[in-house]
């Protein structure tokens, strides 16, 4: 039993470090190699690198707030949520594997952006996608990790809802 717990913890730590590490390595490369607002086309004009320092949250929301409010809302609250999420991930023993993986992506990405905010005063964003009918804001690998975590939770939630509905229908058919 102790060996299984150690393996579980090792896998969870690996996923957390992997998410955080990829994000931080990519941001370090971008900070060194790409100038502020320099745009590099990777796939025509559909996928570009464009380095910006984001002092706000998602899509620069809150970057005009006074410093104290930004500190509380964009640093303090995420720190509390990430600390609780990490505690929950390692303390709860009966979480499904997909829920654990989703938490690793959410926490790894969240820590990556929070680390930037604390260390640099802003978050380095650098990827931009422009499709003919839709374009993204400028984002980074931490944002991708967070979105993957949310996606996993959404799929799991839908799957649970479908299973619950199916069980209800089967129970009604038998009764």
SSE map:
Blueprint: H1 2-33, E1 39-43, E2 47-54, H2 67-91, H3 97-120, E3 123-129, H4 141-174
Antiparallel strand pairs: 1-2, 2-3
Please tell me about this protein's structure:
There is one protein chain. This protein has 4 helices and 3 strands. It is mostly helical and 175 residues long. A hairpin with a 3-residue loop joins β1 and β2 (47-54). α2 (67-91) packs antiparallel against α3 (97-120). The longest helix has 34 residues, at 141-174.
> Mind telling me the C-alpha Rg?
20 Å
Structural shape: globular
Biggest pleated sheet = 3 strands, antiparallel
Task: Provide the structure class.
Answer: mainly alpha
Strands, count: 3
Strand order, main sheet: write it out: 1-2-3
Question: Which series of helices and strands comes N to C?
Answer: HEEHHEH
The N- and C-terminal alpha carbons lie at a distance of: 40 Å
Q: Roughly what fraction of the amino acids lie in strands? A: 5-15%
Q: What are the low-pLDDT stretches, counting only 5+ consecutive residues below 50?
A: none
Oligomer description = single chain
Look at the structure and give the mean pLDDT: 89
């Amino acid at each position: 039993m102790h060996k299984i717990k150690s393996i579980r913890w090792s896998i969870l730590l690996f996923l957390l470090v992997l998410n955080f590490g990829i994000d931080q390595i990519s941001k370090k490369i971008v900070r060194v190699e790409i100038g502020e607002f320099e745009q590099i086309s990777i796939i025509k004009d559909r996928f570009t690198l464009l380095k910006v320092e984001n002092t706000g949250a998602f899509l620069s929301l809150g970057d005009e707030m006074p410093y104290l409010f930004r500190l509380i809302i964009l640093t303090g609250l995420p720190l509390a949520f990430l600390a609780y999420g990490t505690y929950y991930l390692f303390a709860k023993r009966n979480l499904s594997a997909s829920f654990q993986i989703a938490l690793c992506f959410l926490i790894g990405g969240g820590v990556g952006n929070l680390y930037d905010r604390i260390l640099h005063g802003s978050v380095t964003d650098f990827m931009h996608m422009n499709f003919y009918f839709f374009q993204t804001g400028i984002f980074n690998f931490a944002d991708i990790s967070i979105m993957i975590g949310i996606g996993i939770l959404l799929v799991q939630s839908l799957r649970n809802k479908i299973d619950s509905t199916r069980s209800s229908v089967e129970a009604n058919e038998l009764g």
